[in-house]
## 1
Amino acid sequence: MNVGTASAAPGERATGTLEVTDLPTGGAERLPVILARGEREGPTLWLTGGIHGNEVTGVAAVQDVLRGGVSASGGSPDEADGVPEGLRGTVVCVPMCNPAGIRRVERTSYYHDDDPNRHFPPAEGDATRRRVQELIDERLYEAVVDSADALLDVHTAQVGSVPFVIRDRVLHGERREEGDAEALAERLAALADATGIPVVTEYPAEEYADRNLHRSTAGAVLNEAGVPSLTVELGGHETIAEPHRAAGVAAAYRAMVHLGMLDAVPEGIEAAAPTLESPVAFPVRRFRGPNASAAGFCRPRLEPGAAFAEGDPLADVVSPHGEARETVAAPADGYVLGWPSPTTYENDPVASLAVRDDDGLVVPRS
Ligand SMILES: [Zn+2]
């Protein structure tokens, strides 16, 4: 088993790099790879982090999975040989999928300032027109789909946000029968439930396509390659949040158990990150909003993780002098995932919410 220059025989852990493009100044852009191969055959689980360069908790979580779950400051790496005991199959970790973004601790890369998580799979048409970030993404995508039986792509949402796992809807149409889409959606739901982190279904199909999310890492590996893939959101930007890092590591181990790669989650990993329950008992989807009609400064009334009912006040938009201008109300039952920046222009969405979702998990591709 090898990914880039990382090559492991059964029972071995290996590190190496996946070269994704040459640099004009010499050398190459390389994505670090850590992989561990069990003594016995089994599925291949991929873990990716850092496609958004400021989402550093995801980087740390993916770095630590094959160090026995310990953080650089939180234990002795010598205690773990890096191959989870009794592993069947292979775990591939790529913690820094956007090195140019990570160098600047910014969401985008400096190759071009668009979202590096929207170029999967490669665009159809003339390959000579693809710019460097698209080529980097294409080479990563090809490496993932070459061997992955499942993928967790690890991100962060907002400062102070609660951890959640995003499950995309499965599209059917020309390239996939509805029955196959239903089977894939079922496998995806089971993997999501296994992570021990509350599950939030992605935006409705039209908004999903408008936001180009079918071309995100997890969206493309799921909807194009047909491999169960989830986006894991672990708290805020630019700083490593320890409980969220531990939750990400535990989610990876729970996925291994679910996929039949391990018999149980190691005790220390389970103890560091107990299973998190959803604040509500009904299925939810992501919702960015509601929108403020007035410009101002948004002052939340609820903490991330707090449940609300339709019509409940969520936040106040205040004037520069701190006087109330508008109270924004919940559009449906749900709970708060997190709060984006309080700086609010007219018609800006003020909250990141999980709201009741009764729509299907399988939808026709338009
Ligand atoms: Zn992200």
## 2
Amino acid sequence: MIDVHYWPTPNGWKVTIMLEECGLDYRIRPVDIGGGDQFKPEFLRISPNNRMPAIVDHQPLGGGGPVSLFESGAILEYLADKSGQFLPKSGPERYRVLQWVHWQMANLGPMMGNANHFKNYAKNITGDPAQLEYGTKRFVGEVDRLSGVMDAQLSVNPFLAGGAYSIADIISWPWAMLMDRLIDEDVWEGFPNLKRWVDEVGARPAVDKGFHVGRDLPKQDLTEEEKNARRDLLFNQTNEKVRKAREEAVRAAA
Ligand SMILES: N[C@@H](CCC(=O)N[C@@H](CS)C(=O)NCC(=O)O)C(=O)O
């Protein structure tokens, strides 16, 4: 059994989609990131970067005691090796897939996350239009560039890493499919190959199932005060806060 420390966001969906694709047994351990669960000692012991997703595999690859992992790229690589699916075992084909996995982790995810922050959240935090304008232009510009990179790749390949559906597609889809919500609904006109791939991957039953896991988890009907507290928790993190929580986690484990 694999415990998935999870909240329904693009980075969380990568893992539930992969588990559904592989047919591995898992159970959800909710991490309410607006409510501060990511700072709890038991979670920090698994994920020292106070971010979900993370997994604990109680029957790990190679045997032995439970294995815990954080960072969605490492998790998908591990699950691919465990199940023997969606990542070639060796040779150039393996690295062709892994380069796109690293591309997603270092480019598409962070740039879309920041674009989303400036377009949808920052206006509730800063009243300074200049800050909003620069941040939005910088990160939406990068998302536009990255969409062009994917569209060009998908104009000559059915899937991101070349021939076969792989963890490169699984890790990129949950962010790429949000492009029309982040940029605008006409964005697909400029990226027809990306749109073709978003639709094809989205039509896979395992993708649909993984994408809907935990839809009932987020708290609805929050008051304005509760919303502000959640924003403050997510967007005002400091090294002191993380260090203190980590020290508590280490003390509790001793
Ligand atoms: N690079 C990480 C990113 C994970 C990440 O940013 N997770 C967000 C939710 S999508 C989170 O846990 N945020 C909690 C916080 O900001 O405190 C991965 O791909 O696993």
## 3
Amino acid sequence: MPENAAGDLAGQVALVTGAASGIGAATARRLARDGATVAVADINGDGVKAVAEDIVAAGGAATAMTCDQTDADQVAALFADLEQLGQLDICVANAGWGRYGAFLDISLPAWQKTFDVNVTGTFLVCQSAARRMVELGRGGSIVVTSSCGAVNPVALFSAYCSAKAALNTMVTVMAYELGQFDIRANAVMPGVTETAMTEALLDSGARDYTLAESPLGRNGRPEDVADAIAFLAGPHSGFVTGSSLLVDGGASTFSPGWFGADFRERHRANWTPRHVQWTGRPG
Ligand SMILES: NC(=O)c1ccc[n+]([C@@H]2O[C@H](COP(=O)([O-])OP(=O)(O)OC[C@H]3O[C@@H](n4cnc5c(N)ncnc54)[C@H](O)[C@@H]3O)[C@@H](O)[C@H]2O)c1
């Protein structure tokens, strides 16, 4: 963390969803280090309790809140609880869910869960946050965790990429409508980041390919994305709204991504990770 960023958020209250692990937990820790009081929310109650305890043990201020963001009643209860913290300056709508599978195979329940968690859940959280911010009249900053797949969709992630593309569009319209209340809305689009969400896939052999296709030579860390979220949440991005920021180490330059197929064998596409090898020869 840059030294001059410390304390930027002193006196502010932030909500971070999906904060029991990965990017959300790193973001909660980062915003707390920057001085915010953080409401750490997730469907995983034990997870958020542990993260909040860590933050407090490190000298920060945090409260754990359990919420399934696909359930409108639970989101309403979350925002009722948040009123105990007084104001709400920052909302990081980060919780998400995704699985990969061929378009021909994806089941309706998997498609629906992808949209329920990523789109409907994020909508419920962002709408409640925006309403609270308008009511309080202090402005605010909303950051949504989208994905590089929103703008560079990859094979086998049709539901996930479609859902994240919907979030980018939602953020654009939120920025347009909420600017008049001094509420900014932006998205981060992480690339492959080492978290619980990607662990099994990366461990099954995909890591070799994602590393080969990362210009910076590594996968993302939760803290990389947390840094970008902290920028968009805080005062140093005061004139930034309606933007979607890639935080992917340049991996999107390899679009359409790390699953490829040889289309010379029509109807027998065998989707395998695609390794682009630099031969050292000029084209
Ligand atoms: N890891 C990556 O490579 C990657 C890349 C692009 C985008 N993202 C996005 O980053 C965000 C964070 O994911 P992560 O990588 O840290 O994974 P993660 O699995 O560590 O974190 C996701 C969190 O969301 C929570 N969650 C899931 N469903 C929920 C619900 N219904 N209500 C409330 N919380 C719920 C989970 O309990 C979990 O703590 C997600 O939106 C994900 O789509 C991740």
